[in-house]
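Hi team,

Below is the intake form for ABC transporter permease from Sneathiella chungangensis. Please confirm the fields before the structure is written into the shared record.

FORM ID: S-0412
PROTEIN: ABC transporter permease
ORGANISM: Sneathiella chungangensis
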Amino acid sequence: MSGFEWIVPVVLTVITAATPLVFAGIGELITEKSGVLNLGVEGMMLVGAVSGFIAATVTGNYFLAVGAAALAGAIMAFLFGVLTLSLMANQVATGLALTLFGVGLSALMGQEFVGEPVQALAKLDIAGLSDIPFIGPIVFGQDALVYLSFFMVIVVSWFLYKTKGGLILRAVGDSHDAAHSIGYPVIAIRYMAVMFGGAMSGIGGAYLSLAYTPMWAENMTAGRGWIALALIVFATWKPGLVLVGAYMFGGITILQLHAQAAGLNVPSQVLSMLPYLATVLVLVLISKDQSRIRKHAPACIGKIFHPAA
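The structure came back. Fields below:
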């Protein structure tokens, strides 16, 4: 391509790579703001991906498909909530188990659909706007889930910092004992936060199987759930920075794909590692500033709440 024509397809691919990270990241942000650490994002994304794909294949209705993915992710998160909030199991161990369970369950559910293609989620096409050079296809030519991801970032930011409900959620995450002492139902609030996080992870998974690569393949999340978890620390638990981080990691993912296509004399395995190496590097750099993490992280994250204490 001549001139700057190459920019549009690159930006479009970055958007598709970043969108599932936005959904998973913004959902986990709410979960962690309530004081719960759910490491099962990868498993919830996989179950959401296969559930959305099966629903789209069977019904042909993509609205139902996205709803099925959100419901599947929420059910997985509810299971995590029962184990950690009601039965008081260790959150880290349970989250890891949830990921392993999601990997196996999604493979079982999707064994008859492996490699079967489905029509990709339709792109928005506004006459006169989508045809505007450069801006048109980027701003007005996306599918509905891309716009929903931006909308959810705005809604979550508004909820957390402009509403009483958001204030209560942050209070529960910062001091569950104090919130309980003034009458707030800590466990119920955390259940809702955890299930919201699961629903968002499920939608992020559905984006992979319905839009990014419209087909089902086992383990198709390829570690994106772990990247989403790293995004929360990178963003210091702020919704706007989750969006920025998702697009940064999405850009790195696309960079390695373009590097492979350009035929660089670098082993493809090394290039494929770039997004994950970037994740580790970012976490190492951030971990050096412990005061910054302590300042923004919910004080009760990962801690078990004992109502009778």
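SUMMARY LINE: The two ends are 66 Å apart (CA to CA).

Thanks, M.
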